[in-house]
Amino acid sequence: MIRTMLRLRARTGCEPAVGPAFETVAGQLGALAGNLRHELLRDALDPSGFVVVTEWADEAALRAYRRGPVAARLAGLLRPLAEPADGPEYPLMRETGDGTGPVYVDVELTVPLDRLAEFHRGYPEVVRRMTSIPGYRREQLLREPGSDIHHIFAEWDGAAPFLAWIGDPAHASAQAGPIAPFLLDIRRRLFHVVPDADDRRHPTTGWEADVHRTTDVLVVGAGPTGLTAAVELARRGIDCLVIDKQVTPPGHADKAIGVHCRTMEIWEEQGVVREAMDAGIWLTGNMVFVNGEQTHRMSWELPGLPYAHLGLPQYETERILTARLATLGVRPQRGAELVDFTQDAEGVTATVRTADGGTETVRAAYLVGADGAHSRVRERLGLTFTGGLGRFPQLFMLVDVDVDWDMPDGHLLRFLHMTDGQMDGMLVCVPLRGEHRYRIATLAPPRFFAQTGGRDAPPGFSEELDEPTISDVQAALDRLAPPGTRASNLRWSSVFRISHGIVDRYREGRVFVAGDAAHLHPPAGGQGMNTGIQDTWNLAWKLALAVRGLAAPGLLDSYETERRPEGEEIVGRAVRMAGTEEVDRADLERQFLQEMSMLLSYAGSPLVGETVADPAALGDAPRPGDRAPDVDGLRRRGVGHPLRLRDLTRGTRHTLLLYADGTAGAGELAAFTGLCADARRLAGGEIEAYLLLDPDADEPRLLDPPVVRDAERRFRAAYGLDGTGLYLIRPDGHVGFRGAPVDPDALRKHLHLVFGSAR
Questions:
Q1: Whole-angstrom distance, CA of residue 125 vs CA of residue 176
Q2: CB-side neighbour CA atoms (13 Å) of 13
Q3: Which CA distances in Å does 16 have to 83, 142, 206, 400, 497?
Q4: Which residues partner with 443 through β-bridges?
Q5: Strand 213-220 relative to strand 240-244: parallel, antiparallel, unpaired?
Q6: Going from the N-terminus, what domains does the chain have, and what CATH number goes with each?
Q7: Mind listing the pLDDT tens digit for each residue in 92-132?
Q8: Is Ribonucleoprotein tagged as a keyword (predicted)?
Q9: What is the pTM assigned to this prediction?
Q10: Are 399 and 468 in contact (CB under 8 A)?
């Protein structure tokens, strides 16, 4: 058995915070393999003094702890509260009867509260007497907080002088006499000092010398993908650090414009949808022209959508999400660039170059690479693009400009020129907030190809090439737009090269990639940004459970299982759309819903399931993995207005929706109370539960779960239930499990797939 003891002294005024800081990670520490004891002791004579005690089965367990995120997080929590303790540091110790050199003796005794004053009067005299004993060095009196248990922790030159002293009753009683009544019932342990070849601590402070900052999750990249991850982690109380190498946020409309309907639903959940609507404009439809002739026009204002398609420049998206993250106590560290990282079984150690040119080391349990098309995380993981990174042969120019023409407001416009079935001209115009303002993408003039000197231009924006002029824009409009169209007020322009591809894997150990770090698309409908947001919307709740020790072993694997097929499909669809008039002219409405991620399903995921007696009876009800549709018309006693289903499922936990109509027996309903309690236990408290009752059902006298009336039977119609049934809705709004009728054992088995460690 190996013991470590770290002495620290709380800064003035910080004493009350030391205990809660230690308790924050005590549960995680105790769950580590090989941990035998973890305790924070107080100096019984100094209110500012503390000692962190850990005991381990062997040195391998200690080494894993020291190199892992729990030790780093503990250091990160205690460091701001403490100064280096005065006096010698305790070395690494082994409890054994053999060994040479100094020994430490831990005498555990009980001092009742009503006799504490008596003990404190006698103890200083004992210490004074002990100083004359050969071989005795020093001791510290510690106590267990909230307990009457004390520890006399003494250092001796070696085992021989201690054993000689303790073996002579006369000597022992002579020195220990003033506190002898308290020594009748004691526990004594002897420790020898052992070499610590793996000691990475500073010799004075005790903190790990090479770690400057600790966090649960390091997010690399402060774009929409990284900000979404950080917001979702912070909403769940997970400590995260967001870094971005750009010193200032972008201010040009050079990236995604369209915000998909599903993203708007996510933003409602995150509490930013109103700000987004206030800053954007509605994209109400699209029109396509081929060789000057309109081939189709479609309205995007479809019935049944929770939100329409919003036009919002990505820099506004980042501003809104950054502000929301600040309300959760997290601010991105700008001008901080990831240099490199390594990972081990317990965490990730990253080297970060800071804005002042220095470097710092960050230790995290997990790392999320949301650092864009030129991802450093992707590079360091050695991820490759499946089939290679595809590049369009053309150069394109992108401009933010005013356009004077007679076109319907809010419409995305595509003008194509085809010769012998091949596209040789393209103009895509997306409306921006402001009168006649558009973001236009079109082929770059030939002179930009000449500027490359015949070399292959790199993907993304080209800083080496000249900026397109208003004349370049006007020339494209003259060729492709309606006659008489005029451009003015050029705000920004650049030349770029389209690349596309998807990486071979989304995860390597404790490191994940998301957004453009994982998949690159042609700029068709803002797919890159919206898909990246969906990536970390899927990942963050799973990471939060893993950090808290509640995740089943396969939960994090489901991120790649669920998101990579979606990324692969979107990349392929965007490439097909980039050079054609339309992919599916036969069903434009379904195509639009697909583009808006409203049809997204994880039906193939091993993380979803069902037990349904008659699947046909459920009809078109959402299947496991499908997005859980919202319904309204629900009623709850004491609430003067109807509720939406989203009012019940909103939050950071799973939601168990039990259903019963008038055919359900009293015994079935009564059993729901135990089922909900069991589900919460299996999920470590990470489940909310409700009973939705048909209007004809009698309301049971249940304290749990809360009862909500499906007053207009809209839940029953949308979810296809009859008799009794249940739906388990995941925190990302997708159906995790459904049962018809209710099958408690099947639900428990499913919960083990998600919350295996919560047992």
A1: 9
A2: 1
A3: 15, 17, 21, 56, 58
A4: 396
A5: parallel
A6: 2-193 (3.30.70.100), 213-284+304-389+501-595 (3.50.50.60), 393-497 (3.30.70.2450), 609-758 (3.40.30.10)
A7: 888 876 667 789 999 998 989 988 898 888 888 888 888 88
A8: no
A9: 0.74
A10: yes
